[in-house]
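subagent[fold] <- orchestrator: predict structure for attached chain, return tokens only, no commentary.
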Amino acid sequence: MTSNRSLVLPTVQPSGLGPQAWLVRLLVAFIVVPLTGLVVLFAVSMTGWGFQTDPGDQLRRDLPMLIASAIAGAGCGAALGFALAGPRRAPILLLMAVGVVPAILKGSAYFTHSY
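subagent[fold] -> orchestrator:
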């Protein structure tokens, strides 16, 4: 025998950002992204100032600025991903990885002599 029960569909849950999600994303895009981008540029520009000629010594000298550049670059990429795609994980992680690239390139330039 079969049962005659009605099918009840779940109700749609509202997003956590509310109806002004576009405003939050716009503020992130125009405030957070440029500020963190400037931090990245400043941190990368402060590397390379010194008299060390050994690549290992250069890397040890500039490691704090390269770490600051990597963290700020990841934050800039995450903010840009959030501003463009909202709270989706894939674009945020992809742009975080892209944001770390300037620090990686500058750190690897010591060993390849391609400033």
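orchestrator: received. Logging for downstream: The first helix runs from residue 21 to 45. Helices lie at 21-45, 55-85, 89-99, 101-112.
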